[in-house]
User: Fold these one by one.
Assistant:
Number 1:
Amino acid sequence: MGEKPQSYERRLQLKHFFEDRETKETRRTWLELQVSMPEQASEGWVNDGKIRLSIGEDRNVKGSFLLSIDEATRFLKALEIAITDHEVEKAALWRK
């Protein structure tokens, strides 16, 4: 019994443009987030979805991470903490 491939949707792509120091050409790096929603199996249970983070340069994918929902949750919390710590430190520097 073959499994159907995961379907990914709700994409977010963050792009960063920069000038290549060697060639002086404008280059692009990007981070893309894709979501595979949970699905109900024919037997009745629900399979978790996945989060895929892809990193690329110009049009080529350089790396990809397939995260479980638990891993994505831990990533989100770590990112929130890092942003909060950053903002606290920035505010402290402005107060000096």
Number 2:
Amino acid sequence: MDKKLSSKALLIYLIKKAYDPFCTADSYQDIKSILFHSNNFHGMNYLYLAESYIEDDFSLFKISQEQAIHFCKKALKEDNPYGYYCLYKIYLKANDFKKARIFLRLSCSSSITEAYLEMGKNYQEGFLFSKDYKKAENCYLKALYLGNKESYFYLLLLALKERKTEKAYKIYSIAEKDNYRLPGVAL
């Protein structure tokens, strides 16, 4: 009995096939058509295309900002909340900070871990939001709670920036117990 591929595995297979230097023009067009029109991937195909716009350096599929926004909305219609986070990145790339803030907040309300990390960085640096270390820390802790261990690094940087060495040491110790090695930190 043949094992059925998950939609994620099938999507990865199609993308790898499109990048294969021996992929024919017909196969490439078929793959492109599937990625652009299929609703069998829970919106992951649309988010891949949106990411192709955001990180356009190595993309096989050149799409416009309008198409990327359209694909994010299609992913959201397929109940994939990561579409909010992609919209945040699209508007950030376009320097539309008002819309970027809106979609970053929506991403956080959808429990996207990367969004909490981004929100924390924005509060820490005062880029999209007014600088607020307490809000930054809360965002990092929420990301950590959702499983993003990279948050340890940002919590540590925040503690060091605030010159709270005991707190920094505690974060370092907790991260070590959680099998997360923090790079280049001397306490």
Number 3:
Amino acid sequence: MPDKSRSFELQEPRSPESLVPDPWLEPWMIAAASVLLLVLLGLWFFHKKKPLPVDPLAIRRAAHAEAAAALEQIGAVSAREAAVRCSLILRKFLSIAAGDPALFETHEETLARHDALQGFSPPARAAAASGFSKLAALKYAPEIPDIAATEVIAGSRELLETLHLGFQA
């Protein structure tokens, strides 16, 4: 009979952690994914905040169309009222199309500014000075001028066309 001697020594049991399978997701993977997510969010946020390119020609066309429509809507009014409305419409056109602060200035302040209407050709600047002077004379005359409102509107329409076509390239 073979001798089978066995030792009855107590052995340490295997650790329970050794029975758990290794995780496929490591802590460095979580950190890398978080950093990547933050970078992507940052790029998306800054890309979204970029202003769209502005087309100055489209802005000028829209301002011209708006001003022309506003001049057409001036009804049967006195020459002074027509001059006031035409002046406001033309100054609003200048403020939108050329970025000029003429809308918020008096006639004298606009003429006194050396950089007024610099984006226009010299004939357009001369026509603007002449046209706005006529409108100012009509607006501030002590007596209501003896001129038809349709003439004031027609002159303003001509000035609008001159200004619209008078932008320097």
